[in-house]
Amino acid sequence: MRMSPASLLDASAIGLSGLCLAHCLLLPVGAAMLPALAAAAEAEWLHLLFVAIALPLAMVALGRAHRRRPLPGALWLLAASGLAGLLAGAIGWPAHALETPSTIAGSLLLAAAHGWNWRRRPHPACDG
């Protein structure tokens, strides 16, 4: 089955949220086991890179999704909250101790928004 460009964008955004979640949960465990990875787990540029990729991808995926049915405000709010959580985690706001929880919450909220967006779109039946 061939995916539409909008579905591909949502799938990419969900995948990126999953990578972000894996980074937040798995890399610190790996860093604890292998001290050489500690620097990578704390690399601030990596967090900013994830946000820099997620922001335009999310906006394009959600913005061009439905021409006939505009997105509900709640979906935009969910996506904006997710992006705000990712950004807050990337810059360590309001406290460095909240970086991981903020990033995890943000990635889950953004993935939920893309999942909701994907479910709103009509999907052709699989021909088998």
TrEMBL record:
<keyword id="KW-0812">Transmembrane</keyword>
<protein>
    <submittedName>
        <fullName>MerC domain-containing protein</fullName>
    </submittedName>
</protein>
<dbReference type="Pfam" id="PF03203">
    <property type="entry name" value="MerC"/>
</dbReference>
<dbReference type="InterPro" id="IPR004891">
    <property type="entry name" value="Mercury-R_MerC"/>
</dbReference>
<dbReference type="GO" id="GO:0016020">
    <property type="term" value="C:membrane"/>
</dbReference>
<keyword id="KW-0472">Membrane</keyword>
<dbReference type="GO" id="GO:0015097">
    <property type="term" value="F:mercury ion transmembrane transporter activity"/>
</dbReference>
<feature type="transmembrane region" description="Helical">
    <location>
        <begin position="75"/>
        <end position="95"/>
    </location>
</feature>
<feature type="transmembrane region" description="Helical">
    <location>
        <begin position="46"/>
        <end position="63"/>
    </location>
</feature>
<keyword id="KW-1133">Transmembrane helix</keyword>
